[in-house]
Amino acid sequence: PMYAAEMAPFLAMVGEFRVHYAGFFDPGFGHDAAGGTGSRGVLEVRCHEAPFVLEHGQVVGRLVYEQMQELPTQLYGAALKSNYQGQGLKLSKHFK
Predict the structure, then answer these.
(1) What's the predicted TM-score (pTM) here?
(2) Beta pairing, strands 17-18 & 46-47
(3) What Å distances lie between residue 7 and 31, 56, 73, 78, CA to CA?
(4) Successive 10-residue mean pLDDT values, the chain, 96 residues
């Protein structure tokens, strides 16, 4: 829980899409001390103007980690009604 992370583009010139709409991982995300058992970050991708195809294994983003100056008083998921703690993979609501 001493780190937070942010999703950042791997290389901005790779294509006409953005990967970091919901790209912040709070301290404690997936951590057992916050009621998690490991969590997966869900990648939200939107294209700008031109349609494109993502290939399996294609690198589209990276996580940039920042170390906290001190241990947070509350962790993501710990009694904060955090929506994504412990959530598995699922399709977007657009596919329902």
Answers:
(1) 0.68
(2) antiparallel
(3) 18, 19, 24, 22
(4) 85 64 80 76 73 81 91 78 71 70
Residue 77's identity, in one-letter code, is: G
Residue 77: Cβ-neighbour burial (10 angstroms; 0-12, 13-18, 19+): buried
87 within a domain of the structure (yes/no) = no
Domain count, the chain: 1
In a domain, 77, yes or no: no
Instruction: State how far the Cα of 29 lies from the Cα of 85, in Å rounded to an integer.
Output: 6
| Residue 80 lies inside a defined structural domain of this protein | no
Closest CA to 37 of 88, 91, 75, 79: 88
Q: Supply the range of the domain harboring residue 55.
A: 1-68
State CA 11 to chain mean position distance.
17
- Residue 72 CB coordination number (10 Å): 16
